[in-house]
Amino acid sequence: MSNHPFRFGVSLINVGSRSAWRDRVREVEDLGYDVLQMPDHLGMQSPFPALVAAADVTAMRLGTYVLNAGIASPAYLARDVADTQRLTDGRLELGLGAGYMPNEFEAVGLPFGTGGERLGKLEATLAATRELLAAEPDRPVPPIMLAGSGDRMLRFGAREADIFSFSIMAGVTEGLPPEEAFARRVRVLREAAGERADRIELNLFVAAVGESAEQLDLAIIRQASGLDDASLNQLPGVLIGSPEEIADRLRRYREEYGVSYISVLEPHRAAFAEVIKHLR
């Protein structure tokens, strides 16, 4: 289905010192990753300075994975995006989401609101930010990644995204096996995209990688999702098996669903690097 080549991203969680950060950036590039991605949560690093610092020691593309648009000002966001795009020689991928952690809204004095209200804020923020960037003389508009799993988000991504990232919850629908739930969401996006469908690069968030369920480190995603381990182990974004078996599974995902861009969390970077070797 997909005409996109495989690409692989890794989401690094903490920066540390300048020298330690540069060493980790070089490490993930040496492991075979194509994109260095930074999350956007309180208690973690500030994404844009980290990406600019990484640009000096890597040829990888650099992405936010993903910014909480619910607390962002378009004017300030456009300023940061423009300068990051310039300072990374045009390698930025701007990932945006609607936000899902109430404490982050509380910290900036904004209401968490309903899912629909947060999506509305994302839509408005993206439109205003794009307009501001397009008005710059050098038009520093990066590719836009949108991320989520709800039907309204999928249809919004179908209209506006260059890249769409399916969250871990894309495999969760009551009454459906996880892969059927995921397949349904891919269909929603592609049908809404129409003629744009083949131009949208599909990204899968991978929460854990291991040769057996007993080896999986599910701590981060267990806390974020609220799901038990048995449920998590069935999700498309949890990869269990040998590197060869996982590579075969991802080839099938690309053939059947069009997913060609895979992003993994930092704790699983070395394990997934063994999979990358079979997909080059």
How would you characterize this protein structure?
The chain is α/β, with parallel strands linked by helices and 280 residues long. The protein is built from eleven helices and eleven strands. It has an eight-stranded parallel beta barrel with strand order 1-2-3-5-6-7-8-11, surrounded by seven helices. A two-stranded parallel ribbon has the order 9-10.
Taking the sheet with the most strands, its summary is: 8 strands, parallel, barrel
Beta-strand content: 15-25%
Q: Which radius of gyration do the C-alpha atoms yield?
A: 18 Å
The geometry reads as: globular
Query: What structural class do helix, strand and pairing data support?
Result: alpha/beta
| Low-confidence segments | none
Order of helices and strands: EHEHEEHEHHEHEHEEHHEHEH
Distance between the termini: 18 Å
Strand order of the largest sheet: 1-2-3-5-6-7-8-11
Number of helices: 11
Helix coverage percent:
40-55%
Mean pLDDT equals: 96
Q: What is the number of beta strands? A: 11
